[in-house]
Write a structure and sequence with these properties.
Helices cover about 40% and strands about 15% of the residues. It is of the alpha/beta class. It starts with a strand and ends in a 15-residue tail after the last strand. Bound molecules: NADPH dihydro-nicotinamide-adenine-dinucleotide phosphate and 2-hydroxyethylsulfonic acid.
Length: about 250
């Protein structure tokens, strides 16, 4: 029987690379996301290697999440790793210039969506027990403030604290919990953040060496396959060519 990984946001970036990484290692895949055609393409690509189940899913919809979990077919029900990856940033402008809808979308996806999926899968993960993992994708933005980070960074701070608190409650179940916090990585993330501005996205990554989706997929796979008795609480990963800046000072 293959181990089963359940991935949210498998249609792009980290999620898609993670699907490929786990497929390489022989895990059965539950792949979710809103863009069905991308899920189908990924299923077509990977199902020669491993069993693949796809489900079109908006993580913000708690009822839909429950249904997808309840309807997992045989062979995909004993979930060993949940990868809470679906998420987004919007509106890199200063807080005072951002529409309230954009704030709500980030909270609904990165916080409410993540807890919807975690809540629905917790019983399955506890049933799996020893060696099971909940791996949530936080961000350096959840720990370190920067201009334009406003609600995005705050949603990722939630991911960190929620992960630690889950660990407290899951002690004794064998289920591990990790917050993986990447820095700058080239995916569709900036295209989404800038609402489709390809030039702005290209500009951010030009002339430097960002992380790749495959780099993060490798970290996720590493955390999920450590010996059962090891729990990485938080793993912050930056490109070598990214670091902090000095404080900004408002002067006369
Ligand atoms: P991408 O935009 O490439 O991928 C985001 C994924 O999230 C897509 O598969 C998208 O699928 C899915 N998603 C977004 N909203 C929803 C929703 N409502 N329901 C279900 N799925 C959704 O970006 P990344 O791969 O970079 O981002 C993955 C995660 O990593 C996010 O949580 C992001 O915040 C985090 N992160 C990214 C960093 C970076 O620099 N790239 C750094 C640190 C953290 P679909 O649109 O098909 O639903
Ligand atoms: C996204 C990475 O560096 O834009 O979480 O905050 S960064």
């Amino acid at each position: 029987m293959n181990d089963v990984v359940f991935i949210t946001g498998a249609t792009s970036g980290f999620g898609r690379a993670t699907a490929r990484r786990f497929a390489e290692a022989g895990w059965a895949l539950v792949l979710t996301g809103r863009r069905q055609e991308r899920l189908e393409a990924l299923k077509q690509e990977l199902s020669a290697k491993v069993p693949v189940h796809i489900a079109t899913l908006d993580v913000r919809d708690a009822e839909a999440v429950k249904q997808v979990v309840a309807e997992l077919p045989a062979g995909f029900r004993e979930v060993k790793a949940l990868i809470n990856n679906a998420g987004l940033a919007l509106a890199p402008e200063p807080a005072q210039k951002v529409g309230l809808n954009d704030w709500h979308t980030m909270i609904d996806t990165n916080v409410t969506g993540l807890v919807n999926v975690t809540h629905a899968l917790l019983p399955r993960l506890i049933e799996t027990g020893k060696g099971a993992s909940i791996i949530s994708i936080g961000s350096v933005a959840g720990h370190w403030p920067y201009p334009g980070g406003h609600v995005y960074g705050a949603t990722k701070a939630f991911v960190e604290q929620f992960s630690y608190n889950l660990r407290c409650d899951l002690l004794g179940t064998g289920v591990r919990v990790t917050d993986i916090a990447p820095g700058m990585a080239e995916t569709e993330f900036t295209l989404v953040r800038t609402k489709g501005n390809q030039e702005a996205s290209d500009k951010l990554y030009r002339g430097t060496t960002p992380l790749t989706a495959e780099d993060i997929a490798e970290q996720i796979y590493y955390v999920a396959t450590l010996p059962d008795h090891i729990n990485i609480n938080r793993l912050e990963v930056m490109p070598t060519r990214q670091a902090w800046s000095p404080f900004n000072i408002d002067r006369d």
